[in-house]
Amino acid sequence: MKGDFPILKGITYLDSAATTQKPIHVIDAISHYYKTSNANVHRGLYTLSQKATLAFEDARATVATFINTTPEHIVFTKGTTESLNLLASSLNLQEGDEIVLTEMEHHANLVPWQQTKATLKFIPLKDDYHLDLEAAKELITDKTKIVAVTHISNVLGTINDIETLTQLAHSKGAKIVVDAAQSIAHLTIDIKDIDFLAFSGHKMCGPTGIGILYGKDFSNLKPYQFGGDMIKEVTYETSTFQEAPYKFEAGTPNIAGAIGLAAAITYLETATHPHITEYALEKLQSIEGLKIIGPQINRAPVFSFTLEGIHPHDVAEILSKHNICVRAGHHCAMPLMKKLNIHGTTRASFYIYNTKEDVDTLVEGIKKVQEVFK
Ligand code: 7TS
Prior knowledge:
Elements: E1 12-13, H1 24-36, H2 47-66, E2 74-77, H3 80-90, E3 98-102, H4 111-114, E4 119-123, H5 133-139, E5 144-150, H6 162-171, E6 175-179, H7 183-186, E7 196-200, E8 211-215, E9 231-234, E10 239-241, H8 255-270, H9 277-285, E11 290-292, E12 302-307, H10 312-321, E13 324-325, E14 327-329, H11 334-340, E15 345-349, H12 356-372
Parallel strand pairs: 1-13, 3-4, 3-5, 5-6, 6-7
Antiparallel strand pairs: 2-8, 7-8, 9-10, 11-12, 12-15, 14-15
Helix pairs in contact: 1-8, 2-8, 9-12, 10-12
């Protein structure tokens, strides 16, 4: 599998939670599009433009099938961050409304909600790094309009119980918003009862600059940006808008990005997913002075850890000297760091191209870091 990823020669890449590497299939699909089909979409009457439009709309259909829905529910955005901003600004939240989040959210699923008039509440984290669902039952009330949760924490690796949270939200008439930025890479997602779901192409072998907002029902959401392509009729004074998904796609979209994302989905459907979560957990935990910041069970291969007496930035820098790529810092989850009373962690995240040998390389690397600080 590593052979499909040209960039992976000579490095141990363990930062897929930040962005994944791209297989040659995706790189070729983007290049092929620019070589053979590039034109603007939805406007040209000539063959090339129709070809581009077809490829773009085919990509939407591929994404829809991937999460078990139909194309009219799929909005193309720049990524998870834009998808969540779109929701926060279009849902028409009012003073007195409540939004229930969790204590483990990425800033992308927190800061946009802070900009609304609604009041934010947070489902607490338990000592085992899972959400306190008993507390969630109390927090989600008739005032709750939105329950917005990450499916998998990009810091802890915790897999959240979306089914239960969806039931709790719906029992009070609230909508559930799922941040699937991490889970899209690791779990099969069937949107079923979910109201809104956001993810990024670049975290699942696709290109940067393309993402998805799934919506079960967009009819109550007003457009988020205005201009070409999203309108039905325009006069000097006023305008009417297209239906979803087009009312949310103002301007020339990232056509090549959508095509690259569809190629990534096609690639992932035939790729094998190696299961190294337990192996990695066991190996990392066997290192003296290393503390895993995350759960033992129901977790993804995203491992945050601290090393006794060594700053995460030093860990990442020394590992980098051995061609091991990990991330260090707060991982865009400052409130979570504060809650856990730590400044940051080192994070190693694994994906389909990683092997048990990569885990061993990391473990050896960490031991070398410890040698330096002895
Ligand atoms: N939500 C979660 C859970 C994430 O992990 C990320 C990105 C985002 C939202 C935002 O995604 P974007 O594609 O719009 O940037 N997470 C990370 C990370 O952990 N390190 O770099 C980016």
